[in-house]
Amino acid sequence: MTTPQIQWYPGHIAKAERSLQEQLKLVDVVLEVRDARIPLATSHPQTPQWVGSKGRVLVLNRVDMIPASVQQQWVKWFQVRSEDPFFTNANHGAGIMAVAEAAKLAGEKVNQRRRDRGMLPRPIRAVVIGFPNVGKSALINRLLNRRVVESARRPGVTRQLRWVRVSDQLELLDAPGVLPSKLKDQAAALKLAICDDIGEAAYDNQRIAAGFVDLVNQLQRESELKIVEGLRSRYRLDPMELTGESFLEALAAHRHQGDVERTARELLNDFRKGLLGAIPLELPNSISE
Fold it and tell me: How many other C-beta atoms lie within 10 A of the C-beta of residue 288?
């Protein structure tokens, strides 16, 4: 089965990108939030350009949705590249305070310059950027210990830029999710669609669900992880014995009288809710550079 071209670039994303570039001129630190299940696919190619010489904190959210061993692999992978990722579960608050401290530390040189000029220090200004639905708003709400930013599983909820004060030392700008203007890497686009990090894209649920099963089978063969166990136990069907397409058809026949579309939606929703266990869709040892 050939994965279809996945593209999504609605007008509000283009507008958000222009606004974000203007707002970036006002901030000291960039908090870049990615999805821990797909930390490379949720890396925006323009982020280095946007960040420039500003401080940057890399946040990998949804750490609860990957195995602890994979988290450690990613820590080592990023550290080899001189980066220290901060893993969070924004829905439950894990890792949040470490992110706040890292943001303040990354922006401290701003206040040092102010002190050198005889000026009083001011709150560090940070912006939270990332793809739609990676957990930016949930992260801010946790930092504030109250719900001030709308958050939802549906991508594209955050439309307007707004400042929120975390403390006397830190202010945050919550920005709409920003996608690349063109999703050139279709393998990455598939992962974004599977994880619901791409917004309301024009993609075929059946092909995305089948692609998910094929990807899980591939990662299972490349690693010692038991990531197919969740599918086996929940659906009483072994994905390793089937292609993604045939797995979907067999599951539809077994559960929904052959309704493949309903089955595809259910499968994707089960994964997105974590009902299939901790399943990473990228592994450091499977990346060729």
Answer: 3
**Tokens 């870049």 belong to which residue?**
32
More confident residue, 81 or 12: 81
Per-domain residue ranges of the chain: 11-174, 204-286
- The SS3 of residue 16 is helix
Is this structure's pTM higher than 0.90?
Answer: no
Fold entry, domain 11-174? Rossmann fold (3.40.50)
> Within a 10 A sphere around the Cβ of 234, how many other Cβ atoms?
13
pLDDT-derived band of residue 73, with 50, 70 and 90 as boundaries? Answer: very high
pLDDT at position 4 over 70: no
- The CA distance from 94 to 57, in Å, is 16
Using only the alpha carbons of the chain, give its radius of gyration.
20
Burial class (CB in 10 A: 0-12, 13-18, 19+), 113: exposed
